[in-house]
Amino acid sequence: MATPKQPFFNFNILILFLFLEPLQVHSVCRNFCNNIPIKYPFGVDDGCGAPQFRHMLNCTTDLFFITPSGNYKVQSIDYNKKSMVIFDPAMSTCSILQPHHDFVMTDIQSVTIPPSPDTIFVLLNCSIDSPVLNHYKSLCFNFSGHSCDELYGSCTAFKLFHLLSNSTPPCCFTSYNTVKFMSMNILDCSHYTSVYNVDSLKGVGPLDWLYGIKLSYSVPDTGCDRCVKTGGMCGFDVETEGMVCICSASNNSTIQCGAGIGMNTGTSLRQSSLLLESFMVIVLIFHLTLL
Ligand SMILES: *[C@@H]1O[C@H](CO)[C@@H](O)[C@H](O)[C@H]1NC(C)=O
Ligand SMILES: *[C@@H]1O[C@H](CO)[C@@H](O)[C@H](O)[C@H]1NC(C)=O
Ligand SMILES: *[C@@H]1O[C@H](CO)[C@@H](O)[C@H](O)[C@H]1NC(C)=O
Ligand SMILES: *[C@@H]1O[C@H](CO)[C@@H](O)[C@H](O)[C@H]1NC(C)=O
Ligand SMILES: *[C@@H]1O[C@H](CO)[C@@H](O)[C@H](O)[C@H]1NC(C)=O
Questions:
Q1: Going by CA atoms, what residue is nearest to atom 9 of ligand 4?
Q2: Domain boundaries, position 127
Q3: What are the pLDDT digits (tens) for 222-269?
Q4: Which of 9, 48, 172, 195 is geometrically suited to a Cys-Cys bond with 123, CB 3.0 to 4.6 A?
Q5: What is the DSSP letter of 114?
């Protein structure tokens, strides 16, 4: 009469098999980094995602976007709107004043994942010799009716400029291109900040602005949909950078994880584990009837 334990034992094995198979694919390509989902075209393991975005993300304690000017913390990724919000921990915000520092992207990043048009850079405390106050004045614009005075007046951090100079030091609301073509040293403004989703900030005070940089990316069309629909994850060959559909930890296919095309050990693995699962259910039912 020691049998009551046996059904539970089999039930555990059943659960194990149900979870085993997805784990096999995920051990090749992590699909989460600290609560942020990692999907095509991104990857945090080499050979995962699209090669155009290779070496751009680093998943250590958090998810970081890697650029020549530093690693920026990724705050969110919107896969529907194809955008990613990053934060430069060294930039100033309404509450922290930090000396300027360049924001530099690689040439590939400037093309594949540039800052979105609704992200603006705010150059603060510019010297009177700054190009944006002279020859390149036209690069500065008024955004949603906001002025520098408002920034210097309402943010704890920026009030310091008022106090120290007893006037309103010049500032400039500009686009990424200005920062891209002129370094912060050339721009000659002591501090900078950046704000995103500016289209919705009309009448909203600087304390409630969204500080960070929103990047918008485009997804290369390499037929990844087909691979995902058949249960795979898109990746690439680390040597040739040609597309690979990762079906399981032990085998990759060229296009999809279906029968007949490419190598598809992944599918047969899935089928055999399904068979095993059905067998386990039968065994379980059999044991329960015996009780
Ligand atoms: C499958 O592709 C991934 C990504 O390129 C690679 O890391 C992995 O080693 C490949 N696995 C096999 C069995 O070829
Ligand atoms: C990823 O981040 C870790 C810790 O910040 C760092 O040691 C490592 O060099 C980074 N890797 C890349 C490719 O930047
Ligand atoms: C503002 O810029 C000037 C140089 O143009 C600099 O001397 C001054 O320290 C800056 N103010 C602050 C608060 O950093
Ligand atoms: C921005 O607005 C202010 C006053 O509202 C005006 O004096 C200034 O010329 C405007 N600047 C630009 C670049 O339109
Ligand atoms: C992958 O699958 C193909 C075809 O099913 C097979 O020839 C090859 O040996 C498999 N490779 C590995 C590493 O299992």
A1: 142
A2: 56-216
A3: 888 888 888 889 999 999 999 999 988 777 888 888 753 444 444 444
A4: 172
A5: P
